[in-house]
Amino acid sequence: MLVHQFSNKSTEMALRVASLDYLGTVAARLRKDAVTSKMDQGSIARILKQFSRKFYIAQWFRDTTMETEKAIKSQKDEDSSERTHHAKDVETTGQIMHRAETRKTFLRSIIKTTPSQFSTLKMNSDTVDYEDACLIVRYLASMRPFAQSFDIYLTQILRVLGENAIAVRTKAMKCLSEVVAVDPSILARLDMQRGVHGRLMDNSTSVREAAVELLGRFVLCRPQLAEQYYDMLIERILDTGISVRKRVIKILRDICIEQPTFPKITEMCVKMIRRVNDEEGIKKLVNETFQKLWFTPTPHHDKEAMTRKILNITDVLLKSEEDASYKPVKKACTQLVDNLVEHILKYEESLSDSDNKGVNSGRLVACITTLFLFSKIRPQLMVKHAMTMQPYLTTKCSTQNDFMVICNVAKILELVVPLMEHPSETFLATIEEDLMKLIIKYGMTVVQHCVSCLGAVVNKVTQNYKFVWACFNRYYGALLKLKSQHQEDPNSTILTANKPALLRSLFTVGALCRHFDFDQEDFKGNSKVNIKDKVLELLMYFTKHSDEEVQTKAIIGLGKKY
User: Fold this and answer.
1) Terminal C-alpha separation, the chain
2) DSSP of 488-541, one letter per residue?
3) CA distances, 229 to each of 69, 189, 192, 218 (Å)
4) With pLDDT > 90 as the criterion, what percentage of the chain qualifies?
5) Segment Disordered: which positions (predicted)?
6) Is 535 within 8 Å of 476 (Cβ atoms)?
7) Per-residue model confidence as pLDDT tens digits over 173-194
8) CA Rg, the chain, in Å?
């Protein structure tokens, strides 16, 4: 009847819309019952197993009672005047009662309940509770033709999406929302996909908004739906209806937050950024969106989220640049880098002024740190400034700022030098020598950054393996000698005197092994000795040293190596 009412175009519009509304409720309930029944197959099996046996026992108990009552009544209906048979009658009735009680006793014993509980079986704790009863009813009802008519009703709702009346089309979308709320997997159906796509292109803004709202409510809980409907959804960000554009931006924002690994996030961000010059409400929404996506603090321990945020920002900038004939971001970044380098040179000159030495030293560190961040994102920006940065490797370290300068310059050169086209041999040799001096002279933090930079320069550019091999042998040989001395006399004063050399050798060998494969022929030539195993054996030996500081450095060396 409902289908007939809303399908009949001659019916009053209010009645058609109301009928469609009711049918949507019916279809949603049918789908809910079907999904619930499928999800609770285990519960249904449990209920059947638990109560089917008790049902039959109770039925047999009832049958015994009824048979007894019937037999007794039959005895009473016989002619009472036949006194000669009275004794026999009483005996027969007694036999009937005895047989009935025997049956009941047996049934009680196998159902494992007391006689008093049988009189109030409905109040027994073993009866079906309300939820189980509802589940059983839904399951049994799902076998009936009406319960299996969901596809028919859904098809009817999808059919009226093409109606001329806007009210009918809008109500049809609302009905689909009810159905999808119960089972979002419905959106994966091809007929649903065609229906929703058609309404996203509808002439009416309210219908388009209803279609977008339908998708927005459910694409987040099913990542595959986001991929399936992405192309349809992203088109609507250019919709003529302001309300539609707003809703699309909210959905895209939620996808970015809830599904940070979604492959289309860069494109989505670019599309949203382009709406920044839209009307005031949308402009505000876009600003709030990127405030939340990019400029909300990330938990300190969540390195993955921080990396993802940085990559997202850079990917969006690059994508925006690729799509534009004029590339303002690239030009602006180039200007910033160039000016930062100029400021570094100015601060370096002003460091001779003792009054401002501390302030300018801090600014120098800040500028070099900023350049490192630019290099990390786009190292090409620093290629032309590499030779300017190299002399800072020779900074005399007397303060914490000096150490920060050296470490950041090493990190910059590590990223930039491999990108240089035909760098001069003198320049490369100078970098190698400066890095080696720093490795020999300073502590663990400087060593790890300088070894990493040396690895990039030698492995990717100079292939000066003999230079590195000599350095490795210096520390490796020292460890072998110190191990031998320790084995001969663990309490030797020579070992105590050489403790600083031992500590430096332990973490330096580990750091070198992390960035260079010394088992390559380029390093050890034709030797059959497995350097990696020898270093592992050596470091493991010192992890058992009596001195805790030596143990710690040996473990750190192992961490650097592996």
Assistant:
1) 74
2) H-TT-HHHHHTHHHHHHHHHHHHHHHHH--TTSHHHHTT----HHHHHHHHHHH
3) 70, 12, 11, 11
4) 21
5) 71-91
6) yes
7) 888 888 888 887 888 888 888 8
8) 42
Q: CA torsion 269→275→276→280, rounded to 10°?
A: -140
**Closest Cα partner for 203 from 171, 176, 169, 229?**
169
Task: Return the HEC string of 48-110.
Answer: HHHHHHHHHHHHHHHHHHHHHHHHHHHHHHCCCCCHHHHHHHHHHHHHHHHHHHHHHHHHHHH
In sequence order, what are the residues at sequence separation of 6 or more whose Cβ sits closer than 8 angstroms to the Cβ of residue 451? 435, 439, 508, 511, 512, 514, 515
CA 257 to CA 288: how far, in whole Å?
Answer: 13
Torsion, CA 544, CA 547, CA 549, CA 552, rounded to 10? 10
pLDDT confidence tier of residue 243, bands split at 50, 70 and 90: very high
Q: How many angstroms from the chain centroid is the CA of residue 468?
A: 42
Runs of H (alpha helix) within 324-424 = 328-350, 357-377, 386-389, 400-416
For helices 328-350 and 303-323, give the axis angle rounded to 10 degrees: 120
The whole model's pTM is what? Answer: 0.48
Q: How many CB atoms lie under 10 A from the CB of residue 7?
A: 15
Angstrom distances, CA of residue 78 to CA of 89, 129, 221: 9, 46, 76
Tokens 């250019």 sit at which residue? 238
Per-residue pLDDT at 6 = 61
Q: Residue 441, Cβ neighbours under 10 Å: how many?
A: 12
The predicted pLDDT at position 15 comes to 80
| Closest of 455, 510, 524, 450 to residue 479, by C-alpha | 510
pLDDT at 28 over 90: no
Give the Cα-Cα-Cα angle 526, 524, 444 (nearest 5 degrees): 170
For the chain, give the percent of residues with pLDDT over 70.
Answer: 85
> DSSP 3-state assignment of 201?
coil
Report how far apart, in Å, the C-alpha atoms of 288 and of each of 95, 149, 284, 299 are: 89, 46, 6, 20
Q: Given pLDDT bands bounded at 50, 70 and 90, which one contains residue 115?
A: very low
Q: What is the DSSP string of 432-494?
A: HHHHHHHHHHS-HHHHHHHHHHHHHHIIIII--HHHHHHHHHHHHHHHHHHHHHHHH-TT-HH
Burial class (CB in 10 A: 0-12, 13-18, 19+), 125: exposed
Dist. CA 452–CA 414, nearest whole Å: 7
Separation of alpha carbons 214 and 208, rounded Å: 10
Coil, helix or strand at residue 222:
coil
User: What long-range pairs does 193-198 form, CB within 8 A, spacing at least 24?
Assistant: 193/228, 193/229, 195/158, 195/161, 196/229, 196/232, 197/232, 198/161, 198/162
**pLDDT per position as a tens digit, 437-484:** 999 999 889 999 999 999 999 999 999 999 999 999 999 999 999 888
